[in-house]
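Journal club side-thread
Mid-discussion, someone asked how the predicted structure for our own chain would compare to the paper's figures. Pasting it here so we can look after the session.
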Amino acid sequence: MTAVTWVTASAAGAVHDWFSWVVIFSNALAGLWALAAHRRSSLRSLALWATTVAAQVTVFVQAGLGTWLMVQEGRDAPELHALYGFSALVAVGIAYSYRQHLRSHLYVLYGCTGLFLMGLGIRAVILDSVA
């Protein structure tokens, strides 16, 4: 690994660590907001959906960063760390695919998905800190 590649991978690693908290908090916010919107229609807005989309996009950005780091450093992620990342990607896809079937419970679906993604993020951070 050249010096430039090492510095780039090191910086990307720091961004991956920091960005994990963006994933966790943005999905927590979107999930809680969606669950609250299920109860109170006044909370239903385009801003909720923009926040939900932005929060779920962070999952893909984080997974991309992690994959790039694994390739650049030529090593594996900590035990089960990659599984949690992959599971988060699948969860976003499942929520999206069920949105028409669960139309009457759409806010619950996205609320629970946001909190599930938050939980996966927390678990991945804990695994990374233990390894």
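Post-session note: The two ends are 23 Å apart (CA to CA).
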